[in-house]
Amino acid sequence: MLAVHFDQPGGAENLYLKEVDKPSPGDGEVLLKVAASALNRADILQRQGGYPPPPGASSILGLEASGHVAELGPGCRGNWKIGDSAMALLSGGGQAQYVTVPEELLMPIPEGLTLLQAAAIPEAWLTAFQLLHLVGNVQAGDTVLIHAGSSGVGTAAIQLAWMAGAIPLVTAGSQQKLQMAEKLGAAAGFNYKEEDFSEAALKFTQGAGVNLILDCIGSPYWEKNVHCLAVDGRWILYGLMGGANINGPLFSKLLSKRGSLIASLLRSRNKKYKQMLVRAFTEQALPHFSTEGPQRLLPVLDRVYPVTEIQEAHKYMEANKNVGKIVLELPH
């Protein structure tokens, strides 16, 4: 089968398609014939040598995929049959023609969605769902500040926060990105290149501050995050796109707010946790992708690239141009 490959860490120019052995499903696993996979920041970090796959995971890039069940491994419990369309949360391996998946980490594709749209759901939407509900304990009426509001996780978090009865606020770097965020349900958006988002968030909340922050940026935002955090607020750190080093009185400022700083990742979590997360998301959120009306959830796709253009797809993501997900289409 063909798979995205790189021989040594570095730039996007190191990526190419390579013929590799097709994996065989193990006990309780399904072999998925991949139609599409979506890009995530983790793919770029792994390509650069900064985010190795967890022990036992495929070294091939790709944390989510959609396609059709091609083979059932021993011990599968009969929830899936050959030919079923499905989407999958992966620890790696999605950017290839076939990938093996524990059967509990497969989800049905919501009615009315294409395979390309479905590929944009698992990693981004399960991350957003986890951050809001399992880690952040979001409540109706909470004000939620979502950094990188036009990213895959950001566009999912806006919609899920809104569905939970919370009030989503976003940061982004262009007017176009803010307009998209507001279309998806953001109550307000702040261009971090043109204004101090912490002052804007405090003004929006009439000085009370935000109850929950979803932060994938890290060090450049720490002072502004603490400044606009409400008393007893929760600040969830799930990425370090801006850097990891902090200088200054973070602890004293956090303590004065009685704030919680919680770090969270999804890829490194164990199979039991991921099964629980997939089950909760399938029951609570997935039906809303198929329903018409104001509660409808929608994956946001920016661009679709054939997997042969993997270098261009990576460069586009690294330029921070995308609004929503970048999807890779695999050859049939």
TrEMBL record:
PANTHER family documented for this protein: QUINONE OXIDOREDUCTASE PIG3, QUINONE OXIDOREDUCTASE PIG3-RELATED
One matching Pfam family: ADH_zinc_N
Annotated GO biological process: NADP+ metabolic process
The keyword Cytoplasm appears for this protein: no
Name of the gene: TP53I3
Enoyl reductase (ER) domain ranges (all copies): 10-328
Keywords, alphabetical: NADP, Oxidoreductase
Entry-linked Gene3D superfamilies: Medium-chain alcohol dehydrogenases, catalytic domain, NAD(P)-binding Rossmann-like Domain
A GO term for molecular function: protein homodimerization activity
Protein name stated in the entry: Tumor protein p53 inducible protein 3
Transmembrane spans: none
